[in-house]
Design a protein that fits this description.
about 475 residues, 2 domains, Glucose Permease (Domain IIA), 5 helices, 27 strands, elongated, mainly beta
Length: about 475
Amino acid sequence: MAVLRRRLIWILPIGLLLVAGTAGAVSSASEAGAEASAYAIKLLVPGQGILGTTQASAPPNQTLPSAPYSYPADGTVIRVSSTSASASATSKGGSATGEATSELDGVQLFGGEISIGHLVASAIAAATPDQASGITNQTAVSGITYLGQPVAVSTGGRIQLGDWGYIQTLVETSSGGDPGTEGRHQSMQVFDLHVAVAHGGLPANSEIVIGRADAYAQYEKDTSTVTIPKPGPQPDNSKTTGTTSTNPEKNAGSQNSGKVQKIPSGLQPKITRKGHVFPVYGQAWFSDSYGSPRADTGWHHGIDIFAPMGTPLLAVADGTVFSVGWNNLGGNRLWLRDKAGNEFYYAHLSAFSPLALNGLKVKAGAVLGFIGNSGDAITTPTHLHFEAHPAALLPFGYDGSAVDPYEWLVGLQHLQEVDFPEGTGAWAKQIAAGVSTQQPGAVLLHSTDISALPRINSRSLATVFNPPKPAKQHD
């Protein structure tokens, strides 16, 4: 079953009656910050008004649980096995990111006359002091049939439905922010069905929108100062309000007790930006998702950085690679320890580069691997899960040492030129430039380190934070 993955293509809006008038798309108000919204189904029936699924909107961040949908109650017009929607918006340190996604499975229209196997609508907008951009390339659709025959869809396309209606497909729109500012409005509408003549229980001039996502972000000049101390011995910052103990043994979290500790309060990355570079080569989009609820780890210990499949991942600093391998949670993953002892975690890689070797010393900007969605990210858009663990906090274990790296990441240098391992340079640079979606040609097949353990637990974490000293390597 073919799946359509779209590249970044700007087109003019076509016939957005329902969305423009009633769908609650992200406002174009000229305010700095971020907004996002998404819904699975919107139905306009003359005389009945607007029907459909609930819209997710942000801020605050919102995720609607998966649920079936039918209209009317017997599902003769619309029947969907599963619908969901999510929206997040972050505005911090002057930068902003909006992300929206809606997803449907098992769509049947007019008793199966039209069917869709799987559909995802996605829009991401980001704005920084240097640029603003948007993407919809995580949009996907598969298993489309009309009268039992497969149907191909195209960007800004049109599918004629006999003499009674038509569908506009993959309608993408984008626009900038306020004049003189870095901003982006980005939207994706996957299907827009128009009923011209009464059909299948719907009167003429009815409209069904299936899969909508809107995102907005605009940069606001930030006058605040973020202080990130230089590496080296740090004061004890483990004291927090409440009853949290300052005893490292008690605060070791999942290392000692096997239980996830609460998010540390009042901690900032004790890592200098000097000598560090952004971990993703080329265009990337991210928001501050640190601390969000997670089923497996209790809370999100890092930041998700979204980029196309196969985008190169870089060493953030001169340092030593360790714990290269696989686990069911992070998929293909590795750690990097910089010269000051700070440790950085990379997860969900699609593949490793030849430099991803335990104990190997690498330079800042070295290509360690490539963006993917391995591990428990298999159902999500491709991204890097990135964590920062300052050296001074490592004694407090995994939960106690993971800090919010968002503001630190915002200020890192984005490399324009990097050295790729032999044989990978041509396609890697094409991916970063947005001209190729070719994926790396190698993946990890077997590993015997802590990757054999099924998930994060006390034994694997103890191995990570107390690794054996690697053999001496040449730079």
